[in-house]
Amino acid sequence: MMSEEPSRVILWTIPRGSSTAFSLSISRIPDVEMWMEPYGFAHIAELNAKVEEGVALPKEYDGNEKLYEKVAGHVSTAMGRRFFPETLSYSKIKKTLEGITAKHVFVKDMAYGMFGKDAIQYIPSGFRHSFLIRNPDLVFPGLHKMYYNHFKAINRLLPEEKDEASFDVRNHNELGSHANYFKTMRDLWSYIRKGIDPKAVILDSTDLLADPRRVLSRWCEAVGLPFDESMLSWNPDVKEMGSWNWGSDWAGQASFDIFHASVLRSTCFTPPKAPQTRNQLTDDVIELAEAAMPFYEEMYRHRIHVDEKHGPNEG
């Protein structure tokens, strides 16, 4: 049922968390303005500033335009599409998000974008907060495959990385520190629920994919967004997704098929996968998943779920 009340929601997540399919679902809501990973890309800009320029990138854009222009070039190379310098500034992002006048605003962002005490002061006011989690045993195999294809496409594989089996995702932190994905998300959740949004909602990807109608409607109720049956299916359209706010130029960009190939082939939420056995996984995936599991399990215990006997519940 569609609500007449305006709403502002940020969904914090990790890579390979089913968040793009989730965003396609949310984009079915009339009068919703979509923002994709603004703080996540700002964090990637900071990483590239340190590696490529040897400097710490200030959070403020004004007065640092030339540096931001250089760093935007590095991020564009790392991501495979052209980024606009001003969209990579934490202060600009906060001000922009707080000034949006659309009836509904949905921001999907990477929790690693809020890494460190100097970043969290730029969390925008006026938003409800939610977290989309996924079992690390499902996240890291997909991440390994995605980043192998991506770094191969932009010619950044190391000499010893001859194929996907010999690729080690731990060697490539240009797009974020993979070892910190889940810890950063747990830390951000703890911070937000203590001082910003005590009712911050946690949603598990497997729950969503197993029962999308009931779980999505429960989530929408919890965060104040309207739910409608039309949110359960879509026609994935690169042009539509390119019209969302990504902070970059989508014309001719080459990385979309690598990062979002499965979503482009989907028309609805697909049934959840079972984790692979350990002997099917590479050493980097095993190490990253095992280190992440305690943080995932802590958040999992607090997720929203739908109990058949008692209705919607929180863990």
TrEMBL record:
Any one GO BP annotation for this protein: carboxylic acid metabolic process
Superkingdom assignment: Eukaryota
Source organism phylogeny: Eukaryota, Metazoa, Echinodermata, Eleutherozoa, Echinozoa
Protein name: Sulfotransferase family protein
Organism: Strongylocentrotus purpuratus
